[in-house]
TrEMBL record:
Bias type Polar residues, positions: 516-526
Source organism per UniProt: Dyella choica
Lineage: Bacteria, Pseudomonadati, Pseudomonadota, Gammaproteobacteria, Lysobacterales
Coiled coil: none
PROSITE patterns: GGDEF (PS50887)
Protein name in the entry: diguanylate cyclase
Length: 532
């Protein structure tokens, strides 16, 4: 205090962030409060809270020593340290503080002497903001973890690891893990936990970028360095956690250069992937770049720059929440894109390449599902088996291109004539199948007759205009105990009955169809007179 009164101490503006040199004896600070507005109970607050302890010396030998890990203080503060001034201390009396030496470089801090009401308002505002930000980050991380388990996609797991590590980093730096969460077991290991979380966050970020931005596809030359970064950071953490002095020193020497180079590597990788077409890379850049800029500004602030930007620490918390939301949107967009791609592949796999109707495998699966779903009901199911007449002759005389055009025309017509809920598929070369639900035999015969007529009216010539393409249709109704195979077999037999009795007809299966009898049933078969 004598040095203060003599004016030999270095002066600074307590409203601005002040950097204190690392000193084995600590640093002494004298605050000269303003007398205006300091009536009643007053508080000294230090923001952000230093990792080391701070001692305040009051009048008549009154002293208080607090640290982030002190859980006995009646007034502690959140994101800051706070001291009640001694009762009866004059508002204008200078306040002596000693910043005890810590195990790491002290972050710049600002000091304030406030009334209790002002302090409580500021403290509660910060606590609400920090809680909301951490809640957003934790929620996004846990949701991603659930998706990682459900979808078996490790990309979501890497995102979860990255976000949780960032939560730990900010929780240590702001003291949120100690107050209000009360994780007392962290006391004494905050520096180690924080440094390990920083290193692991970069590791998870590298692994996340590798998959999220599809580096192997869009930036293959950088894939190996990115993966190497992902595995190098945990190794540095292991070295840092050993009790071997040489390894600890090596880890401390490597960590900052690797962090800087790693951050730049991820930035360049994402930018290159985005330029080359990775949609997700732009999501990553939108979330990562602002946080990277803030981190660079905070690092510069630790050297004494930007002393008036005391909001950078709080901005890092808020920007973490922003990044969590942006990357979650990117993951959702990625999942939606993958789903669309899978749906497109499924459609291509299920569709006949020529006619664009269901192929045999897809039709069989869909028909089996329909039969299973209606097995315990009395809903009627009809199966039509269609075979084009004289198709081989058309191919032989006019070529396969003409045959392909005929198949496409017939498939399009069938699709237009049938209901959207009916199952239409290509069963073989010139064979089509259609499963109709909720129709009786008479209605199914009417549908089949309409289809037969529509095929003939396409007027596809086989031999000039003398012979046109037509279709023979067999019909089978589902009976008790039918499987798809038995139903198809009966419809196929009915179709062959038509083939043996003049083609261009519709016939419903009956027992005598199996014998290929010579007398056509007037009730179950239909035949139009030849069309000109």
């Amino acid at each position: 205090m004598a040095a203060f009164r003599q004016g030999s101490l270095k002066t600074f503006d307590p409203v601005l962030l002040q950097r204190f040199p690392r000193n084995a004896m600590g640093n002494w600070v004298v605050l000269q409060p303003q007398t205006t507005g300091l009536d009643g109970e007053n508080v000294v607050s230090i923001y952000p809270a230093p990792l080391g302890s701070v001692t305040i010396y009051g009048e008549q030998g009154f002293t208080q020593t607090y640290a982030m890990g002190d859980f006995n203080a009646s007034l502690h503060g959140h994101g800051r340290l706070a001291f009640r001034l001694a009762p009866g201390q004059a508002p204008s009396a200078p306040i002596l503080l000693k910043l005890e030496p810590g195990s790491s470089m002290a972050a710049p801090a600002r000091f304030a002497v406030q009334g209790m009401d002002e302090f409580l308002l500021e403290d509660s505002t910060w606590l609400s903001f920090a809680t909301a930000s951490f809640a957003v980050m934790a929620t996004m991380a846990l949701m991603a973890l659930c998706f990682a388990i459900m979808l078996r996609d490790v990309t979501f797991a890497w995102y979860t690891g990255y976000m949780l590590c960032y939560v730990v980093v900010q929780g240590v730096q702001t003291g949120f893990l100690l107050h209000p969460l009360g994780l007392s077991w962290l006391v004494g290991s905050e520096v180690l936990v924080g440094a390990s979380a920083v290193a692991l966050s970069v590791s998870f970020a590298a692994l996340f970028v590798s998959r999220f931005c599809d580096v192997q596809r869009y930036a293959p030359a950088l894939r190996v360095p990115v993966i190497a970064l992902g595995f190098a950071m945990p190794l540095i953490v292991v070295l840092r956690c050993t009790d071997i002095d040489a390894l600890v020193v090596m880890a401390q020497t490597l960590v900052n250069p690797v962090l800087i180079l790693g951050a730049l590597l991820l930035l360049v990788t994402a930018l290159l992937a985005g330029v080359r077409g990775s949609r997700q890379a732009w999501f990553f850049l939108a979330g990562w770049t602002p946080l990277l800029v803030l981190t660079a500004m905070t690092s510069a602030q630790a050297t004494g720059a930007l002393p008036n930007l005391d909001w950078l620490n709080d901005a890092s918390i808020g920007m973490g929440a922003f990044e969590a939301i942006v990357l979650s949107l990117g993951l959702a967009d990625r999942a939606l894109t993958m789903r669309r791609d899978r749906d497109s592949v499924r459609v291509l796999a299920d569709r006949d390449a020529l006619t664009n109707i269901l192929n045999r495998r897809a039709w069989t699966e869909a028909a089996n599902r329909l039969l299973t779903e209606t097995a315990d009901t009395e809903r009627p199911i009809a199966l039509l088996f269609l075979d084009l007449d004289h198709f081989k002759m058309l191919n032989d005389l006019q070529g396969h291109a003409a045959g392909d055009r005929a198949l496409v025309a017939v498939a399009q017509m069938l699709g237009h004539e049938l209901r959207p809920t009916d199952l239409l598929g290509r069963y073989g070369g010139e064979e089509f199948v259609a499963m109709l639900h909720d129709v009786n035999q008479e209605q199914a015969l009417q549908v089949a007759t309409r289809l037969r007529r529509r095929v003939h009216r396409l007027e596809i010539p086989v031999i000039c205009e003398d012979l046109r393409l037509s279709v023979s249709i067999g019909l089978a109704m589902r009976s008790m105990g039918d499987t798809l195979d038995t139903l198809v077999e009966r419809a196929d037999q009915a179709m062959y009955y038509v083939k043996l009795h003049g083609r261009n007809q519709v016939h419903a299966y009956e027992r005598r169809t199996e014998m290929y009898g010579t007398q056509r049933s007037k009730t179950h078969s239909t035949l139009d007179p030849p069309e000109a």
